[in-house]
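Dear H.,

Thanks for agreeing to be a second pair of eyes. The structure we're designing against is below in token form, covering all 201 positions.
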């Protein structure tokens, strides 16, 4: 008995250690559960808001190229930029990633903005715009009618600042053709000399 007692006394009392409580997951320094975006879309959105421009992405196309190792994807974006007061631009950009394609298209549209004639919140007269296979009819409407348009036509008119108009696509449904046909129709608009004098007064 004495031997067993001596042996047990030689063993330290704290041989079994309790499992350490699991430490809580360290919080991210950025404050959110998800990390910051790898692209610059949030930065571009804030820049667009500061400049007061209206940016709309009309269409994003994915192109696949078959190569020896598999498929390589590239993207193209069609965007519309306007100030809502008669200035409008259309841009087209291509890149290997969607954010880069959108950034290129919006930059191209911003550099090629044109001024169109608008009569208040509608257009001065009826016009048909044509570009390649696209044909778009634009007809003025009274206040309260709203923007009766869809797809690329609606994006162009909203960016230009038109709020009451009747439209009809008469030709191709291709997004590039429809958007550019709408832009060509807006560029054909003319305001009478009497209306110009009334604006000056």
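And this is the sequence the design step returned. I haven't edited it by hand at all.
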């Amino acid at each position: 008995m004495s031997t067993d007692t001596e042996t047990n006394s030689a063993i330290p009392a704290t041989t079994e250690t309790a499992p350490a409580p699991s430490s809580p997951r360290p919080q991210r320094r950025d404050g959110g559960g998800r990390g910051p975006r790898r692209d610059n879309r949030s930065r571009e959105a804030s820049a667009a808001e500061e400049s007061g421009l209206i940016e709309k992405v009309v269409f994003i196309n994915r192109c696949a190229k078959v190569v020896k190792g598999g498929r390589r994807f590239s993207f193209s974006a069609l965007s519309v930029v306007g100030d809502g007061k008669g200035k409008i631009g259309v841009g087209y950009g291509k890149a290997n990633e969607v954010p880069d394609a959108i950034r290129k298209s919006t930059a191209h549209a911003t550099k090629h903005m044109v001024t169109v004639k608008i009569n208040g919140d509608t257009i001065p007269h009826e016009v048909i715009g044509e570009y390649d296979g696209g044909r778009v009819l634009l007809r003025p409407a009274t206040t309260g009618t709203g923007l009766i348009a869809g797809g690329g036509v609606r994006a162009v008119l909203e960016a230009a600042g038109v709020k009451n108009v009747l439209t009809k696509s008469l030709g191709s449904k291709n997004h590039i053709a429809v958007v550019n046909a709408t832009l060509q129709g807006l560029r054909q608009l003319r305001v009478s000399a009497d209306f110009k004098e009334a604006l000056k007064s």
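Two observations from my side: Helices lie at 2-10, 41-51, 98-111, 151-160, 175-187, 193-200. The CA atoms of residues 93 and 103 lie 8 Å apart.

Warmly,
E.
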